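Please complete every field before forwarding. Incomplete forms are returned to the sender.

SECTION A: IDENTIFIERS
Entry label: holo-340
Bound molecule: zinc ion
Molecule representation: SMILES string

SECTION B: INPUTS
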Amino acid sequence: MTDKPSRLSTTIDFAAEGKQCDFVRIPHSVHRSAYGWLPMPICCIKNGDGPTVLLTSGTHGDEYEGQVALTRLIREVEPDHIKGRLIISPMTNYPSAKAGLRTSPIDDLNLNRVYPGDPDGTVTLAIAHYVETVLMEMSDYVMDLHSGGSSLMYLASSIVPIGDGGADYQKRLELAGAFGAPISFVMPGGAATGTSSSGAARKGLIGIGTEMGGSGTVTPDCLAICEDGVRRALGHLGVLTQGIPDAPATPSRILRAPDFTYYAYASEDGLYEPLVELGDEVEAGQPAALIHYPETPWREPAQVNFEQAGLVVCKRIPGRTERGDCLFHLGRDVDPNSLE
Ligand SMILES: [Zn+2]
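SECTION C: PREDICTED COMPLEX
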């Protein structure tokens, strides 16, 4: 990774006390705007000594629960509600969030696959580099809020990277426990993934993520879980001192998908008929979906089966599907300590 500084800049003084809201300026010289920049909104709230928590959403622009939660948080939280510092970025991949797309309409890149980014690269690469080398650099904790986006719907879950399974993993589990989503999904993580969690690991941050609903919309239930979860997690870290939900977190069901046999993929191009619903418990070998061929309706549909038993935590939303699309994924109950 290069030591070159980011070309992105902001008027915000992250060391200053108080609440500042402005933009990160992403240089973007194009036909309609020769010296222009893209305005990625950001807020810094600081009150005395304490940990710094980076809150991000809009890493994927079609995932809306986190963007609503952080937009509201920016309006509601004042410096005397906290101890330490909050850095809040609701539209982290700004061009994709503005377009409501998973990937950037400028360079087609997926921000959550390109960390650590590149200061001289395209817009998405430059954003990843800025988040890792500037925002994560000054943070102790990070919560990157995702959901299923346009193509998937999730049962509301927090995502806990396992990493090396050591002391930081225990802190991540505790943070997810405070967040209190109905499900906590433990995932391998790792530096090679290009995800924001790989950046967090390189910078030594304690970080968790979420998968809150999806379907290209916002549901009141998932949004409430997300908003209460963020506030409870910030309370757990001692950063939020007011406005923490009274109700304690209910214990999460802890799940894992050890490998891709827990995912069901479309075997053909066609029109997909789900045979199970989110929240169903399924058996190994159970039919997951039929793929129909309306263009040649006399053909028998293809059947996709689950290879493993588990809880259906994620489901594809659009009916039209292509070979290789994820239709479902399962989670298996796991002891978070032994991972068995
Ligand atoms: Zn996402």
